[in-house]
Amino acid sequence: MDTNDVIRLLGEISLVDDRVVKTDTAEQRAQVHMWAAALRDVPLDFAGEAVGRHYAGSAWPVMPKDITARWRDTVRERMSRQVGTFEPAHHPDVDPDDQYGNAYVAALRAGRSAVMTGADAPRELRELVGRVGRTVERAEATEGYLAAKAALFPKADKPAGPAGPPELAVECPACEAGPNRPCQSVQRGRVLSGTHGSRRDAYAAQHGVVA
Ligand SMILES: [Zn+2]
User: Fold this and answer.
1) Which residues pair with 184 in a beta bridge?
2) What's the gap in Å between 134 CA and the centre of ligand 1?
3) How distant, in Å, are the alpha carbons of 25, 51, 63, 167, 185 from that of 55?
4) d(CA 151, ligand 1 centre) in Å
5) Which tens digit of pLDDT belongs to each residue from 117-152?
6) pLDDT of residue 1
7) Residue 174 near residue 198, CB atoms below 8 Å
8) How far is the CA of 173 from the centre of ligand 1 (A)?
9) Ligand 1 centre from 177 Cα, in Å?
């Protein structure tokens, strides 16, 4: 977050706790400066949520360290789930033979930082393992594949309720959407039009479908 984000955050904090924000103008400027330096890597959304969690469990005025500690835990947890595989071939700008080229490094960095900030869900091992041996990828689904899939998931077997793909019947391991609830993006909770790969795998596993 930048200086403007910090000013917004402090403004919100001052609504719930008048002990935090300095009243003297010079002190306030120094405070904004210090918070902006401490919270440089933390997205504003996350900081706002961390402040809420802090006040849910503490009577003390919130400090930058209360936010950065939660941020570090979250990043560590996300990165521990990210298996770190990377397919440069999936990135049109990247020459897979130029592994140490700028585009490769930039794409790698972008992918990691998307996981750190929560923009992308971690690419988890089970999500990758679920794909191993799957001969037909979604992108190249053929009519035969679609027909075979329709036979595996006949319409009568679909759960009652909102129309949608059959995997909606199971809880999503990626975003923890409950049965018959749509998948959501992990950070902002935005409803996704599709479903997470691991949810399709979970459905296939529960229904004994050989992927
Ligand atoms: Zn999901």
Assistant:
1) 191
2) 20
3) 26, 6, 11, 37, 25
4) 24
5) 777 777 665 555 554 444 444 445 556 656 666 666
6) 92
7) yes
8) 7
9) 6
Verdict on whether the full-model pTM lies above 0.90: no
b/e map 140-155, b = 16+ CB within 10 Å = eeeeeeeeeeeeebee
Q: Where do we find the tokens 């469990």?
A: 57
Q: Which two tokens stand for residue 176?
A: 């923890």
- What is the model's pLDDT at position 89? 47
Residue 171 Cα, ligand 1 centroid: separation in angstroms?
Answer: 8
Q: What spacing in Å lies between the alpha carbon of 207 and ligand 1's midpoint?
A: 18
Instruction: Using a CB cutoff of 5 Å, list residues around ligand 1, an ion.
Output: 172, 174-175, 183, 196
Q: Report, as an integer, the average pLDDT of 193-211.
A: 81
**Residue that has been written with the tokens 């996350």 in this structure:** 46
Q: Measured between alpha carbons, how far is residue 61 from residues 2, 8, 52, 66, 121 in Å?
A: 21, 17, 12, 10, 32
Instruction: Give the distance (Å) from ligand 1 centre to CA of residue 119.
Output: 13
**C-alpha distances in angstroms, 104 versus 13, 48, 76, 112, 119?**
41, 33, 23, 12, 20
